[in-house]
Write a structure and sequence with these properties.
By secondary structure, this protein is of the alpha+beta class. Helix content is about 35%, strand content about 20%.
Length: about 250
């Protein structure tokens, strides 16, 4: 894997204008994969096939080149995945972030990234009240995850109590796990809080905080965010595909 001191810049020419991207060196697997695809001309002619205003614009479906407007897109890929590279909380889903698309957790618990599909975050600006609500939701999800883990760790004993009809022992076990969950959640509460940098970004330029630490963020827009905004506002069909094709005409390393 190549060690880089300067960050690679990529110029993306679309039929609506030019977007310049910076690739992070801290996500070398994604960086190098993206560079290879750019150099191979893999993205030329592909579409932004999924566009959601105040959320993101997504491209890189390898079947989207010259795709008729009635074709369902989103499943095209290159037959391999890139291991997740979460550099959180340093890199997060602020407006302009370049991120890797992926399949869902059920079929992809490791959160591995699509080889070719990417999205650029647009998102929305959050109020302080909304940020606090997000933090509460993160705490609730953490608490549930801890309880589920503890329950799984004690699965054999729980099943024995259940099969024997020992309701008293089941109740004691449940209360014990709830207590352990509360203690661990309190110790890990800092994980549910946004950093000052995140809070500043989400309440000023905006983004999509609920995707943080779920999808790999491996770069950002350095020029042409107005083009991203232009793309996110186009009219789409019920599948969120633009009614008029938004084409990636070329990409090149600069």
């Amino acid at each position: 894997m190549e060690q880089k001191t300067t960050e690679t810049q990529v110029r993306m020419q679309t039929n609506l204008g030019t977007i310049t991207l910076k690739l992070y060196n801290e996500t070398p697997l994604h960086r190098d994969n993206f560079i290879k695809l750019v150099k191979d001309g893999q993205y030329e002619g592909l579409l932004f096939h999924r566009v959601i205003n105040e959320f993101m614009i997504q491209g890189g479906d390898v079947t989207s080149k010259n795709a008729p407007l009635n074709k369902q897109l989103g499943a095209g890929d290159l037959g391999y995945t890139v291991p997740a590279e979460f550099v959180y909380p340093r890199y997060f889903h602020k407006r302009g972030a370049l991120c890797a698309a992926r399949t869902g957790d059920d079929s992809n618990p490791e959160k591995a990234s699509s080889a070719s599909q990417f999205y650029i975050v647009t998102g929305k600006v959050y109020s302080e009240g909304e940020i606090k609500q997000l933090e509460k939701q993160k705490e609730s999800r953490l608490k549930q995850a801890i309880f589920n883990r503890l329950q799984n760790e004690n699965k054999t004993t729980i099943m024995q109590y259940y099969k024997s009809g020992d309701k008293d022992s089941l109740a004691i076990m449940r209360d014990t796990l709830i207590g352990k969950t509360e203690i661990e959640t309190e110790k890990r509460k800092e994980e549910t809080k946004l950093t000052a940098q995140q809070r500043e970004a989400y309440t000023s330029v905006g983004g999509v905080p609920f995707l943080d630490n779920e999808y790999t963020v491996y770069g950002e827009v350095t020029e042409g965010i107005e083009i991203v905004d232009k793309i996110q506002k186009v009219k789409t069909n019920s599948s969120e595909r633009p009614l008029e094709n938004i084409i990636i005409e070329s990409m090149q390393i600069i």
